[in-house]
Amino acid sequence: MKICREQIIETALSLLDRDGLEGVTLRKVAADLHVHTGALYWHVRNKQDLIDEMANRLLSEQFSQHEEPASGQDWEDWLREVCQRLRQAMLAHREGARVVAGAGFARAITLKRLVEAIIHNLLVAGFPSRLAFITCNTILSYVYGFVIEEQAAPGDDDANRCEGSGGSILSTAWKEHQANNYTADMDFLAGLELILEGVKQHR
Fold first, then answer.
1. Is 188 in contact with 80 (CB distance < 8 Å)?
2. Which long-range contacts (CB under 8 A, 24 or more apart) does 19-23 make?
3. Domain boundaries 60-153+192-202, CATH class
């Protein structure tokens, strides 16, 4: 049976949603496609290649080849929007954040283009090159980390961990969080605003 790269990626993403990242192996992909594992090597050499391809597909659902601010849109609004779209892209698949965070640029072309677009548009906005690089690295690390936590720990587990700490500062903070009906979306944006405010102070 002849297979193509698209079939491999689609099958791997289905496995990801079903079994998580640890459950995605070349052997399982081959089994689901009813081929020998060796048939995959024409398209992917190892699991890292597969992860890169998965990340590329995952991000391409949200990002085009050329990401630029809309006419009149400033760097801050554009970057905030990019971060929200990146989060949504990763949330679309189980452990999507682990896939993207673990991808390399060689095959994950969409990720590479996104990083380049962020740095480029910060430079255009007048950022020194060092600050543009650090801003990009910091903000992507925040988005990856937030979504990894979001996907790894369902709300009930968070509640149990916090409530199990008794009358601690953590427990008090969690109860206040719950009382105000803060959502993951609100928490994400609040953390993002802290970073953006810090960046503006260093311009």
1. no
2. 20/94, 20/95, 21/51, 21/95, 21/98, 21/99
3. mainly alpha
Q: Which residues contact 133 (CB under 8 A, 6 or more apart)?
A: 119
Fold of 5-45: Arc Repressor Mutant, subunit A (1.10.10)
**pLDDT single digits (tens) 27-50:** 999 999 999 999 999 899 999 999
Six-digit token string for 191: 């953390």
pLDDT, tens digit (0-9, with 9 covering 90-100), for 139-184: 999 999 999 999 986 655 555 555 555 567 877 777 777 766 778 9
Q: What would the DSSP string read from start to end of 59-79?
A: HHTT--S---PPTT--HHHHH
Mean pLDDT of 77-99: 97
Pick left, alpha or beta for residue 191 (phi over 0 → left; psi -120 to 50 → alpha; otherwise beta).
alpha
